[in-house]
Amino acid sequence: MDTVSTYEIIRLTLNSVLLASAPVMAVALLVGLIVSFVQALTQIQEMTLTFVPKIVAIFLALALTLPFIYGTLTRLSNQVFDLIVSGGG
């Protein structure tokens, strides 16, 4: 296996991790922005108000996107195994 195939595996891995984590990260960002906006409007500075809704939203997003994440990681493993079997070329 040469450096080109190693870089290809690293590129595939990084792309797959970013793609698989994007839905959950987007939900966390959106919920965090909404909660921060509500806190700024109402001047309520309670720590659990930011933590609890974000955790609940992350778990729901994770449960809903689990098939997508599984498919992305399965596709990555198949591509990496194909590269290994073909000798990297």
Task: Pick out its properties.
elongated; transmembrane; Bac_export_3; cilium
Element layout with pairings:
Elements: H1 3-42, H2 47-85
InterPro entries: Bac_export_3
Family: Belongs to the FliQ/MopD/SpaQ family.
Organism: Pseudodonghicola xiamenensis
Can you walk me through this structure?
The protein has 89 residues and is mainly α. The protein contains 2 helices and no strands. Helix 1 runs antiparallel to helix 2. It has one domain. It starts with a helix and ends with a helix. The radius of gyration is 19 Å and the shape is elongated. The model has no long low-confidence stretch (mean pLDDT 90).
Q: What is the count of β-strands? A: 0
Summing up helix and strand content along with how strands pair, one would put the structural category as: mainly alpha
The pLDDT mean sits at 90
**How many domain units?**
1
Describe the largest sheet: none
| Gyration radius from CA atoms, angstroms | 19 Å
Beta content: under 5%
Ends apart, CA distance between termini: 8 Å
Protein name: Flagellar biosynthetic protein FliQ
Pfam families: Bac_export_3 (PF01313)
Membrane topology: Multi-pass membrane protein
Family: Belongs to the FliQ/MopD/SpaQ family.
Describe the structure in brief.
One of its GO terms (biological process) is protein secretion. By secondary structure, the protein is mostly helical. The chain is built from two helices and no strands.
